[in-house]
Specification:
5-stranded mixed β-sheet; two-stranded antiparallel sheet; Structural Genomics Hypothetical 15.5 Kd Protein In mrcA-pckA Intergenic Region, Chain A; about 20% helix; alpha+beta; about 80 residues
Amino acid sequence: MQQFVITDAYIELNKLLKASGLCDTGGQAKIVIEDGLVTVEGETETRKRRKIRPGMTINYNNSDLQVIFDKSNAHA
């Protein structure tokens, strides 16, 4: 399982897919979410701006991605 580090309280699902490299563009991320191809915590998610918080796991294209928080680089 891959891990993706965030320094804020959450990241929006479409931004996570792009930033993690699971999708090449933000547009592609929006399409795969709308098409029901992404799961969050095992449930199909169609909200593009769903807040993904540390500890949550998403799956797209047979790739699991766990979001973790790095407080040492957190924004003040």
